[in-house]
Amino acid sequence: MLEREPLISSIASRLSWLSGYLKLQASQNLTSPAVLAEDFFSRLLNMVFDCDLVNANTLKRNYPGIDLEDAARRLAYQITIDDSGKKIREVHEMAVRTKMSERYDQIVIFFLVNKSPTQPKASANFEPCRDPAIRTTDLSEFLSHVRTLELDRIAAVEAFLQKEIRIPGRPAGTERELVYNLPFSSIGPLLKGRDEVFSTLRKHFDEPATENSSSGARNHSEGGRPVVIHALGGVGKTRLAVEYAWRHKNDYRALFYVSASEPVTLKAQIAALASPDLMGLQPVADLEEQYSNALQWFRDRSGWLLILDNVDTRESISAILRLMPNFVRGHVCITSRSAEWPASVFSIDLAFLEDDDGRDYLLESTQGLRASTGDDGNLSGRLSARLGGLPLALEHAAAYIKKLRLGFAGYLSKLDTAAAAVLDWRGASMVEYPVSVAQTWLVTFGELSKSERLLLGMLSFVDSGAIPRWLFSGSQAGESIEEVLGGLAVWHFATWTGDGTGCTIHPLVSEVTRHQISSSQNQALFLEGLKRLVDSAEIGNPQDPTRWDRWDAILPHVIRMVEHLEVEQMWRPAIVWKNRAAVFEQSRAHYESSARMLDQAWDLVQLRLREEDDLYTTVLNNWAGDLRLRGQFDEAETLYRRALKLAEMQYGRRHDQLVVPLNNLGELLRANHKIAEARDVFRRALDLVTLSEETRKSMLSICLSSLGETLFVLGETEEAESMLRKSLEADEKEHGKSNPWQTVCLNNLGELLRQSGRLIEAEDAFRLAFDLDTEYRGKSHPHVARVLNNWALLKVAHGQLEDAESKLRQAVQIDQDAFGANHPTLAPDFLNLSEILFRQKKYAEALFFIERAVSIYNVHGVEGGHVPPEASVAADLMQRIRERVDSPPD
Questions:
Q1: With a threshold of 0.70, does the pTM exceed it?
Q2: Which of 342, 396, 605, 845 is the most exposed place for a label (fewest CB within 10 A)?
Q3: Residue of higher predicted confidence among 326 and 154
Q4: DSSP labels for 69-98?
């Protein structure tokens, strides 16, 4: 029976030899490929491409740049072994010069090398020929096309080459001495991103069988420690093992493939090897005897490679390990979805493909068979990333695209709108893997315990990025969640990060798992489990900078969880976590995303909750805070007062639950220059803060600081300083010395001390506030800008104008990045900076900034009805600066 791969191997071997032979001859000026064109290449290309090429020199002696032509198809070939770009340029120039467009539509330059050179680009010295079209091909592309032919045509090509090319020292037919039963042929260059794994396999198989061998040397195909390639189903373990076998077939006498998915299958397939065609053994009627004969063959001989595929259950793993003593004389390559193997087996954890490798595979495997666009490079990269570098998914995507002649954008669209159907598709005639992406994990699902299946279902509703390990620190039904996660990792449904601080779930595993869950209508059950897991995790206060590392890690997963909660109409937990995520983003000064989240949360609150619900009041407070940050003070005040009224209706006028809405209202009133009213509100909040221990711990220092800052603005300096120092003491008692909660109070105290003439104490307060803010919040946080602004004024008092200018420029940049160019926060920044520039006689730049300050004061003063006192200071300074700008120089 004819087999495809040995025929391809024979064709490749003879063409490779011919290429080398012609190069050698050409180097001695003995033979040119054109000499062979009259008969050999015309016959070969006609057999493969169904054309009618003839020697062009029979039509016109020394026809320039052309060796073969098919006049009816207006096609010409140039055959060459010159693998430089010079040959391509010459053909382009010749085609233009001799007006070949009159005779041909296409010229093909056939390079008798593995890879043709790149087509030259247009330049000042070179203009490529557009008509006729000129393309290049090479031996690799030629062989790829041969692989697509019917088997009888491949055999005809191989027979022709055997007759025409006799390799010295090699008897005809020796290419077929290798015996094998590999399940599919090589895909050659289409296998992407596995060079490092091939090198690892080769290096391992090249190592001595034992460390204490007498010489330490042996033949490559002699025995050694077996290798297991383990990964999630669909990562390409089987393809890799088979491809390795084809690439190294010359190192072996036999290449055997055995499916080992079940012990019974394993035994039957090993027994089947004991045949005349494979092991040269006569068949026997008894399966046990045939099985025994096959094992004896392995024990007696070396020089073979055995692939044990799909060892994916605990039973099959145990069966394989019991057989290993029979396989010590050759090479054994195991593929498995389990990572649990003894040290006696060399382990390779096969990774997903990088996006670039997936992109290249998609582009090359669908070349000429997809709806192409000018953006295919970008779209194929997006598709590779969307499929998470899963080779099986990439192969199915390519087959689907080719079958329907889709473009990459079309397939991406189908994934977005009908992912379940697309992932469950299998083009049986177009891909060699027997099941769809969705089906490939079903067997392994059965290996999971009930707890593991529950956890996998829960985690299918989070983001595809790294999930922090601390999320799994608790227990569920008396079982360690971390150990359950470890069970998922054994079967590659979860993958530990390199540093072991978290894990990831492949996005397609999540998608398929969710689809299975939705089919059983249990999504709410798994989401409730996930919510409880996140609820019980020690994430911490989203406003606490010491917990931001945890919030950074969990935020993408919270956002994705909320999306699914909304789909399942689990409104309350969706609102709770959307609100908490928004508060975190607001604390980090990510105002655009926090505003979007709070707008969405508020819309849900109004639709789904009653006003008497405490969550209604909480979100209303936070939404008002977002409006305040946007500079919409009047709207924010209305909402703050409404939130306070709702809290009073629910709890009464003397309850610690009023402290937060009171403090928020006071902050708004002070920002809107209603200072006396703000003071009264803060005093009321301070009076209520001690009504519960929990509220006292979380809010006492904040209430003291807010009241102290307000008293200072009102000129009540002594009481203000007392309040600020008490705030620092309360913070230190709760959080320890030098903590990030103190920075606002330290900044306010520093400003009070500056204006009181106690400059050394003020410097210490500003420096400590700056150090704490930059350490915990980062150098670009608006808190840092507030400190820099006040600190700059202290530098002015010291006469250090350049330092002051530098600090104010930093403050301006931070606030502009955070709030935008026309936010009320920028007005004092611009005012202070223009004052310092004016003192340094930088009048033009000073005028630029003071005009921006005055503009902001005017706009927001008119809109809010409360023009701040700084507005008149800014107007006076602008007048003084303009006078200097307009006056002649001194």
A1: no
A2: 342
A3: 326
A4: EETTTTEEEEEE---SHHHHHHHHHHHHHT
